[in-house]
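Methods — Computational structure assignment.
A single polypeptide chain was analysed. Its primary sequence is given first, followed by the predicted tertiary structure written as structure tokens.
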Amino acid sequence: MSLKDEWKPSADATIKLSELRYRRLFESAQDGILILDFKSGKILDANPYILNLLGFGLNEVSGKELWEIGFIVDKELAKNAYMELQSKSYIRYENLPLQHKNNHIISVEFISNVYDVGADKVIQCNIRDISQRVDLAQTLKQSEFRYQKLFENAQNGIIFLDFKSGKIVDVNPFIINLLGFSAQELIGKELWEIGFTLDKEVALQAYQEVKVKNFIRYENLPLRKKYGQPIDVEFISNVYEVSGEKVIQCDIRDISSKREIAQYRNVLALSMDDLVNALVAMVETRDPYTAGHQERVSELSIAIARELNYQQINLNGLRMSSMLHDIGKYSIPAEILTKPTTLSSLEREMLRTHAHESFKILKLIHFPWPVAQTVLQHHERLDGSGYPNGLKGDSICDEARIISVADTVEALTSSRPYRPAVGLDIALANIIEGSDRLFDPNIVAVCLRLFREKKFKFSDQKGEKTYTVENVRESL
């Protein structure tokens, strides 16, 4: 006997090895496997995967016909499948519902084959759990449905272009209604060959640019409706992939009304400026010595507020308030406003009414800022010594605190009928002396920095440095 023959396995050993391999494969398979008797349809064997999948024990399924076990939802289908299998030797169901022992439904792919084992035929059923695939497909279907509804109901125009050709492949109802073209007139056409594109060169350039950059945006693009009416739109294009294919999505927003509103707001703003200028001019015709005073107070107030990082909308309100802070002087007799000598106590009290008179006028105008209250408070002082209401500390608004500093500095650096200008040094010394008692110390510090470090200057500033802090207090 040769060495080769000595190590050759016997036929029985070969069969046992083959059966062992089959059993291991059967038991470790990650698909369910059922073995049925060909003649009776009864289950001969079931692997662990299918038992775990459906929650049954081997003893609960062995010897039972396939359709008499609880996991078959449609028993008639199972019977018919068994009859078909006997004639065709193969059946397949892409999505078959099975029922777990605890009653929840599992979607499976079900494949059955007939093959011979010795002289007998058996049926092998391979069962694959596709629940996740089915759930994913359902989720995708719902997602596509929601997207379609969003596409159809969007209040912006949407156009899809083929990436390679630039031809329109889909449009939503909004853009159809906006431009007046039908879907048939748009789909299949290149974007630049349809009448709504006024500048074809821009459209061609945009198409080439979006293919390179994957994004473009035009804030104001002129388009034309089917019957010639011009329309302004915001135009945004993005490139993305759908199932491996690139598409271009163009989002088109009608901004015609937005532009009209912006124009209307500009007109309103100009009208408000005209109103303010007219009121200022009215006061200055009564008191020519203070001509330009309100405008210069506004200049310094805005400069201070910018140093304090005020936003533009708040700067606009401060500008209105500072330009109108002396509007109430229209009610003061001209002989008092222009009196070349020191005012009497009664005259001084009459002059002080201008803050409240300003409030009475300005409260009737619907400004988008608290202009009337700011003007009413611009002569209040932190220690309560101001007028007309003797407010203290935090009761005085920030804008009024700014104007009070700017008004004091400007008044002292400008000539009055009863005195020449006292000069910038004395004016700044005055607000320093009143810091934290009369004036907000932070605002005083900013004002000093503007003049000393940033070289701020009033428009048409004049003055003589002949006065001291002490002898100018009553002239304010």
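Note: The chain has a mean pLDDT of 82.
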